[in-house]
Amino acid sequence: MSLASAGQPSWFGQPRGLTVLFLTEMWEKFSFYGMRAMLVYYMTKQLLMAQAQASLVYGLYTAVVYLTPIFGGLVADRWLGRRKAVILGGTIMAFGHFLMAFEPALYAALACIALGNGFFLPSLPSQIGGLYAPDDPRRVRAYNVYYVGVNLGGFLAPLVCGTIGELYGWHYGFGVAGIGMLAGLAIYILGRPYLPADPPRAAREGPARGRANMPLTMLLVGVGLSVVVFRAAYEQMGNTVALWADQGVDRVVGGGFEIPMTWFQSLNPLLVFALTPFLLAHWSRQAARGREPQPLSKMSLGAAGVAAAFVVLAAVSATGQSAASWLWLVGFFAVLTAGELFILPVGLGLFARFAPAGLAATAVAAWFLAAFAGNLLAGVLGTLWTVLGPPVFFALMGGVAGLSSLSLFALRPLAKTAGAVL
After folding, report:
1. Which of 360, 418, 410 shows the shortest CA–CA distance to 219?
2. Cβ(382)–Cβ(58) under 8 Å?
3. How big is the CA angle at 53 (ends 155 and 336), to the nearest 5 degrees?
């Protein structure tokens, strides 16, 4: 059920409901990325896990949080409804974050966060479409605006949670992450009048409407598999790249101030919401001239950019210096983030726009299934960090991202066959 209407009140030129979803997601990602920024350090420094084991646990956890949305999306679409799913999922996640404060409860806490995320993650963005009329031109790029909210929370999280964790104890940082999740829940509950209502129960239980488009289905599967490969490299950002920031980077600036290692995890989301307005304006100008690249071309270019970023890190780490300048790490995040903006929000928009009627949350969850497999593969590849060393490992990640770029480029003819208005 849509809230869209010609006279609908708006904030910042968008429906008020988008602001509610934006802020809810911002605080949820504050809690998620706040915990994630500390996780590898917590396991290796506090729990004294071996690097390979910590990387594997990290990869498994970040994979499972993208697997549970498949089941959570189905439950939300068929029985629970998206609104109740968001509230239930957020409550379970908040409990998991607070549980992280107790060392023996590590795996139970990670399981709670993953379970709650399964209900929350697909049910929130799947409400965006209902805020707009089908022909509303703002709808196409609403997901890029929403993605800024994701990264605003991700930017604040390492600065707040990570700093508190490093200075006062990891458990306090995890507690602050839990408070962030509660803040997101409060915003969502108070802002529900501005959000689209869930479909009637009969519509959720009935079969999806419309005929299957087999070429389009094949296209989405191909895109999903390419994103799996892409994420295997991209997700090293919070894993092996974070370890390199601690061990292989000179973080001293000015008169002896050492940049906290968790602060570098804020660069990616900071650059996302700094670059997004310029990127959207650029695409709008291209669209006005009829020259905006098709989504698969954008995604292929984005993966190539991430590949280039890792190749630069490989070259820098191969110079033989005991510690590289922190400016190289800043440059890496700048190139990686620019590439990310061409692939991740664009891919999410594809899956959401071409979802079968009545299965919006499930289709979004299918997009996150690629994130599950990619994060799992990233964790497995992360175990090679100590064996290969930074130069060879980063070069390998450049090759992995490059493979994703080539596969996305090769899918463009299938998009024409599918007849999708991309």
Report:
1. 418
2. yes
3. 35
Domain boundaries, the chain: 13-205+212-418
Bridge-partner residues for 11, per DSSP?
14
Q: Please tell me whether residue 249 adopts helix, strand or coil conformation.
A: strand
CA dist 169 and 188 (Å) reads 30
Q: Which residues pair with 10 in a beta bridge?
A: 15
C-alpha–C-alpha distance, residues 342 and 404, integer Å:
13
DSSP states along 167-232: HH-HHHHHHHHHHHHHHHHHHHHHTGGGSPPPPPHHHHHSPPBS---HHHHHHHHHHHHHHHHHHH
Question: Which CATH homologous superfamily contains domain 13-205+212-418?
Answer: MFS general substrate transporter like domains (1.20.1250.20)
DSSP 133: -
Q: What is the pLDDT of residues 160-183, one digit of tens each?
A: 998 899 889 999 999 999 999 999
The size of the chain, in residues, is: 422
Query: Tens digit of pLDDT for each residue in 406-420?
Result: 999 999 888 777 654
Rounded to whole angstroms, what are the CA distances from 162 to 1, 181, 292, 331? 40, 16, 39, 21
CB 380 within 8 A of CB 279: no
Within 10 angstroms of residue 51's Cβ, the number of other Cβ atoms is 17
Distance CA 149, CA 276 (A): 11
Identity of the residue numbered 84: K
Residues 335-346: b if buried by 16+ CB within 10 A, e if exposed: bbbbbbbbbbbb
Query: pTM for this one?
Result: 0.73
Residues 6+ apart with CB under 8 A from 407: 222, 225, 226, 229
